[in-house]
């Protein structure tokens, strides 16, 4: 196509004849086909991945100043500050390992109780630390770029955590980097449950980094301010039991079917640079309910989606 | 004379690369909605100045890269840039002789068309949010046009791009 144009391009006076129009029409049709295929099927991941090889360096270059400043401030900070930080981290570690001791015995106990109830085993999880690149993709959508890609075993739909809670999931994969959608993006929904009583619902993004919406709870639902929301694992994408947010306001509206409930994300969505990627312990993706026994439901996973599964899929547009 | 086109392409591709980088440059939240559409502005200039060198195909490829870079629907920016470029290519002789302020108004109309195509695709695929801020990049692009044009024209003359 390029050669066809350069031959007509020598003709500078008439360079804007019918040829650009025809080319434009062809390209527009091609674009519409690509848009449709990408929107409906998502078969173009390969094209996207190979193009990502070209665009990932641009993202790295844009990230360079802020990562250089981070590194410089690390090497320039005073000895006293470093000692202070070291002391603080040591204390934190002691505290955390104390909590983990109790957690291990609780996990054992949970396992035994599950055996008594004859329900499936909980699958363990494996974590990989990654860094977010300091790039802003679109002010109206909440997307971030992670510096780990398919080379590191990252897969599409993989959950992304930070130190405090769930951040989002991977949407587009490149060989060296990947793009993730945050839970506050308006097109994202995550199945959650109230930690206090197990009430299940869906938390939808609002487009505001500090706000989630719970639009599907009736006025008489047992939920109150300060309730912790954790992932319910029902979307078969996020592992169960990770904190998502805290309920901030519950407004029961007598005239409406549903209450207006808002929550604040637990993860520091606009501040974290260090994030965690989660796998099952055996390295497989979470595309199946980790609690379900694959033999007992005869592989008919699709039917037991209670609507939250399909909501969760809704992000990939 | 023969080796100038090679030089020329180098400058054009570099300016487009810089435009792509500026598109994802981190900005404070208050300024971010006003981020101009850098790639569209740079493409408008090159198509206006060198329509035989930069054309609808260049715009389409840039748009495809923009799609992958920002993670939007594949083909969305490509479609919008191709249509906008067709209009520029069709009227480049007129736009070239406009005074700067009139050029800026034309650029605003072109950016408006570009934004409209993006909104159209967003609407059809059900991704339309924050509609009330979509005018901001158009306005920012119009205000920045004179500076971008002077800068790129200086570059073009400096390197003898033709």
From TrEMBL, chain A:
Coiled-coil region(s): 79-123
Single GO cellular component term: plasma membrane
UniProt record, GO biological process: regulation of cell shape
Superkingdom of the organism of origin: Bacteria
Sequence ranges assigned to domain Rod shape-determining protein MreC beta-barrel core in this UniProt record: 134-279
Keywords: Cell shape, Coiled coil
UniProt-annotated stretches for the region Disordered: 286-317
Gene3D superfamilies, sorted: Rod shape-determining protein MreC, domain 1 (2.40.10.340), Rod shape-determining protein MreC, domain 2 (2.40.10.350)
The keyword Coiled coil appears for this protein: yes
Function: Involved in formation and maintenance of cell shape.
NCBIfam families in alphabetical order: mreC
Family: Belongs to the MreC family.
Protein's name in the database: Cell shape-determining protein MreC
Upper taxonomic lineage: Bacteria, Pseudomonadati, Pseudomonadota, Gammaproteobacteria, Natronospirales
Gene it is expressed from: mreC
UniProtKB/TrEMBL annotation, chain B:
GO cellular component terms given for this protein: plasma membrane
Keywords recorded for this protein, A-Z: Cell inner membrane, Cell membrane, Cell shape, Membrane, Transmembrane, Transmembrane helix
Function of the molecule: Involved in formation of the rod shape of the cell. May also contribute to regulation of formation of penicillin-binding proteins.
Record gene name: mreD
GO biological process: regulation of cell shape
Subcellular locations according to the entry: Cell inner membrane; Cell membrane
Record's keyword annotation contains Transmembrane: yes
Protein name, per record: Rod shape-determining protein MreD
UniProt family annotation: Belongs to the MreD family.
PANTHER family: ROD SHAPE-DETERMINING PROTEIN MRED
Principal localisation: membrane
Segments traversing the membrane: 6-28, 40-61, 73-95, 107-129, 135-155
Membrane topology: Multi-pass membrane protein
